[in-house]
Amino acid sequence: PASDPDLVERALRAKAALGDRLFVLGHHYQRDEVIRFADVTGDSFKLAKDAAARPEAEFIVFCGVHFMAESADILTSPAQRVVLPDLAAGCSMADMATFDQVEEAWDVLTEMGVADVTVPVTYMNSSADIKAFCGRNGGTVCTSSNARRALTWAFEQGPGGPEGKGAGDRKVLFLPDQHLGRNTAVLEMGFSLDDCVVYNPHRPDGGLTEEQIRNAKVILWRGHCSVHGRFTAGCVDEVRDRIPGVNVLVHPECRHEVVTKADQVGSTEYIIKAIEQAPAGSAWAVGTELNLVKRLAARHPDKTITFLDRTVCYCSTMNRIDLPHLVWALESLVDGQVVNQITVDPGTAHWARVALDRMLALP
Ligand code: 13P
Ligand code: SF4
């Protein structure tokens, strides 16, 4: 539906009143009515890099989800204030790994004597204290655009560099998205499915035997994205029957069997570029969040772009940032009131930044 013209007018007015004091970041999964007000759009990697691009901006309004706003707070100067227009915009995947659960898992690995050859790598989609855990324990952060580079770094550089402890026999604890971890390890790095085990935080010892943990190269956390996890291998078969010659393009948060059946896999930014560069007349079935797929279809009328699933599949928490919340946040700033500020305590921020800086320095 078309945006309420009164709200559009108010958002424009508030943005103009704030001028350079304001910097609005928007993730590609945001609604059309919101993304049009973003100064910069991107996937989570690009937004992490861009967050610090406007040191003169007093306010960073983050149109995305909570973990992204936390990362923006960590990566910007203390004087800059990060606002999330709706505090209920969380991420169900990030919630699947709590700090206490991860500490417990690390205790299990420590008791077994494998923690000191294990490098924790967390997906960006995790809370700041999980990133800090990785920073403190010699690990890093990754996003869907650099997961292979981050895992390669973890295996090759690990604790103490190429010749350091555990060299040649290292493991990675990958948090919290089992699918991104498995897809990267198996499809991009040559590990076998048997090299990967899934640690279930709701079971004693992760539901794994000591032998399974000792033999594993990649210990995957039992987390997933509720949006990308909905695509099935059947969706791929169905769309291939329905649209002969269709190219299936999916995000690596999709299940392994979906990614293996697809023609291409990549982060949100990759998906956008692939569609932009595709020849006119080509057909694409895209397995990612629906706001983005609809926008791609509208932007490329010369190509057939369809959603990989037959059912509607928005990310409900991304969608919580709507125009009324954005207008409320912006007008509050105009009135001198910083609402919904996201702050990470300095101790956590320090170690999370160590992990994030390792990611940003990846070759
Ligand atoms: P990217 O932005 O890294 O593609 O990740 C997608 C996602 O699910 C963000 O929440
Ligand atoms: Fe989290 Fe998935 Fe939504 Fe991204 S799309 S914010 S991973 S639930």
UniProtKB/TrEMBL annotation:
Q: Where in the cell is it found?
A: Cytoplasm
GO BP annotation list: 'de novo' NAD+ biosynthetic process from L-aspartate
Reactions catalysed: iminosuccinate + dihydroxyacetone phosphate = quinolinate + phosphate + 2 H2O + H(+)
Q: Could you say which residues bind [4Fe-4S] cluster here?
A: C91, C225, C315
Q: Which GO terms describe its molecular function?
A: 4 iron, 4 sulfur cluster binding; metal ion binding; quinolinate synthetase A activity
Cofactor binding notes = Binds 1 [4Fe-4S] cluster per subunit.
**What EC numbers are recorded for this enzyme?**
2.5.1.72
Superkingdom, taxonomy of origin: Bacteria
Output the InterPro entries linked to this UniProt entry. Answer: NadA, NadA_sf, Quinolinate_synth_A_type3
Record pathway: Cofactor biosynthesis; NAD(+) biosynthesis; quinolinate from iminoaspartate: step 1/1
Q: What GO cellular component entries does it have?
A: cytosol
Q: What class of enzyme is it?
A: transferase
- Kindly list the cofactors needed: [4Fe-4S] cluster
Keyword entries, A-Z? 4Fe-4S, Cytoplasm, Iron, Iron-sulfur, Metal-binding, Pyridine nucleotide biosynthesis, Transferase
Q: Which residues are listed for iminosuccinate binding in this entry?
A: H27, S44, Y123, M124, N125, S144, H251, P252, E253, T268
Keyword Iron-sulfur carried by entry: yes
| Alphabetical list of Pfam families matching this protein | NadA
Described function: Catalyzes the condensation of iminoaspartate with dihydroxyacetone phosphate to form quinolinate.
| HAMAP family attached to this UniProt entry | NadA_type3
Q: Which family does it belong to?
A: Belongs to the quinolinate synthase family. Type 3 subfamily.
| Name of the featured protein | Quinolinate synthase
Organism lineage: Bacteria, Bacillati, Actinomycetota, Actinomycetes, Streptosporangiales
